[in-house]
Design goal:
- This protein has 296 residues and is α/β, with parallel strands linked by helices.
- Among the domains are: 14-100, Conserved hypothetical protein from pyrococcus furiosus pfu- 392566-001, ParB domain, CATH 3.90.1530.10; 221-295, no CATH class.
- The protein has helices at 29-32, 35-47, 71-79, 96-100, 107-119, 124-131, 135-142, 150-156, 163-169, 174-187, 192-200, 221-263, 266-275, 277-295; strands at 14-17, 21-22, 54-57, 65-69, 84-89.
- A 5-stranded mixed beta sheet has the order 1-5-3-4-2.
- α2 crosses α3 (71-79), α8 (150-156) packs parallel to α10 (174-187) and α12 packs across α14 (277-295).
Length: 296
């Protein structure tokens, strides 16, 4: 039976005076002027504390708590002349997890969150004020997936696709958008530069405005045509290799299972060690690689 994972903090939070919270690091001028700092400050001014800081009671400290996570929020609270801060009390004094296990929002996730907020009646102006952003930036994020086909969105919504790459995809027709999304996922490359390369090598009939497909500086039209031909060939070979990969992996699983049954038989191992020691060595290498892949 699987053991229960212990909770990392007390179920009930506590409101603490700022003078009873002991920070473990100081804020530099560069941090205080960073976009992240200013964005959190704007959010706290608009809504108050959203993510409570994590503190741990100091032994023998007579009500003093060490700050484990939330130094920026504590510094902002002091700058806003707040007297108290709502915190969660950790059950352990380690701070590694809070700073290491962080999931950054991706552009597509930001898009859906802004859409939901707008649908619930929050104006772009208030969102911009809360996030310390320009209203035009919020509108760009809101319209990020406009003219992107649902199939391409489905492929990219859980990936680290950059906003620049998604904007480039709007220059091609839906079929090419799907192809670009598949290539990005397969190559694990979601940059705007890679998207521009895919646009440049797209057939004119797949572009929304073929007249806007211009050759990069230093390249002639015949160079672009040759690059298009080579990229299309690479794409075909890539897709073929991707299709074969699945079948090859299935074959490998079957082979490994069969080899495992052979090497578990002492009589077979003894025979191979005497008659075909080189073959036995290769079999063992295959098993070692399979075990390494399974564990690592």
């Amino acid at each position: 039976m699987t053991a229960k994972i212990p909770i990392a903090f007390e179920p009930e939070g506590v409101t603490l005076p700022l003078n009873r919270i002991l920070p473990l690091k100081s804020m530099s001028k560069s941090i205080r002027s960073s976009q992240r700092y200013l964005r959190i400050k704007a959010s706290m001014q608009e809504f108050g504390i959203i993510e409570p800081p994590i503190v741990f009671p100091q032994k023998g400290g007579k009500g003093i708590y060490m700050m484990l996570d939330g130094h920026v929020r504590l510094d902002i609270a002091k700058s806003l002349n707040l007297e108290t801060l709502f915190c969660l009390i950790a059950t352990d004094d380690e701070a590694f997890t809070y700073n290491h296990k962080v999931n950054q929002l991706q552009p597509i996730q930001e898009h859906f969150m802004i859409l939901r907020a707008v649908k619930n009646g929050v104006s772009e102006e208030r969102i911009a004020k809360t996030l310390n952003m320009n209203v035009d930036t919020i509108k760009q994020k809101r319209d990020l997936l406009t003219h992107i086909c649902p199939e391409a969105v489905e492929l990219l919504q859980k990936r680290r696709a950059s906003a620049g790459a998604i904007r480039e995809m709007k220059r091609v027709k839906p079929m090419r958008q799907i192809e670009m999304a598949e290539l990005m996922v397969a190559s694990n490359n979601y940059t705007a530069a890679y998207a521009k390369c895919l646009i440049m090598t797209s057939s004119p009939n797949l572009l929304l405005k073929p007249s806007q497909q211009t050759a990069p500086r230093g390249m002639e039209d015949h160079d672009v045509a040759r690059l298009q031909s080579e990229m299309m060939s690479v794409e075909r070979e890539f897709k073929l290799a991707q299709e074969e990969y699945g079948q090859n992996m299935l074959n490998l699983v079957v082979v490994v299972g069969y080899l495992r049954s052979l090497l578990d038989n002492a009589a077979v191992v003894r025979f191979l060690s005497q008659a075909e020691p080189a073959m036995l060595g290769e079999f063992q290498k295959i098993m070692d690689l399979a075990d390494m892949k399974a564990t690592g």
